[in-house]
Amino acid sequence: MATPTTGLQLFARERRVRLTTYERDGTPVGSPAAIVVEGDHAYVRTHRRAPHTEHLRRYPEAEVAPADLGGTPTGAPMKARVRRLEGGEARHAAARLARKHPLLHGVAVPVGYALRLDRPVHYELRLVGE
After folding, report:
1. Residue 15: closest CA among 123, 116, 102, 83
2. What is the pTM of this model?
3. What DSSP designation does 119 have?
4. Which of 3-17, 69-83, 99-113 has the lowest mean pLDDT?
5. CB 31 within 8 A of CB 37
6. Cα–Cα distance between 58 and 74 in angstroms, integer?
7. Burial of 20 (0-12, 13-18, 19+ CB in 10 A)
8. In b/e form, how buried is each residue of 46-83, taking b as 16+ CB within 10 angstroms?
9. SS (H, E, C) 55-93
């Protein structure tokens, strides 16, 4: 008998999620993000100049929901605590994203960051209450 999928494992087969963060006044701001799940946590990437980066610096919680490629939610959101990764942890998250999405996150995204003179920022997500 198969074990039921729970928590962030529900996102293991998703190519995209809608990541919703909050502005200073509490206004929700959502956009698509690639996700990769590893055990009881997941990784997402954004860029240094993205609004999410500032929102998460001030308030390190977000909602994550399954989404289509354009970021339109296709399921119910879950509340997650978010932690910015640095050094080896960030490199590990980048490698996991590149393994799941080899063309996009292994080639296109790094080239895009270089062309925009921006840097990737990686985050770890853990569901609230787990």
Report:
1. 102
2. 0.85
3. -
4. 99-113
5. no
6. 28
7. buried
8. beeebebbebbeeeeebbbbbbeeebebeeebbebebe
9. HHHHCCEEEEEEECCCCCECCCCEEEEEEECCHHHHHHH
User: pLDDT digits over 46-78, tens only?
Assistant: 878 788 888 999 999 999 999 988 889 999 999
Q: How far apart are CA 44 and CA 63, in angstroms?
A: 12
Which tokens hold the place of 111? 């080239």
Q: Give the H/E segment covering residue 94.
A: helix 87-100
Residues forming a β-bridge with 73 = 67
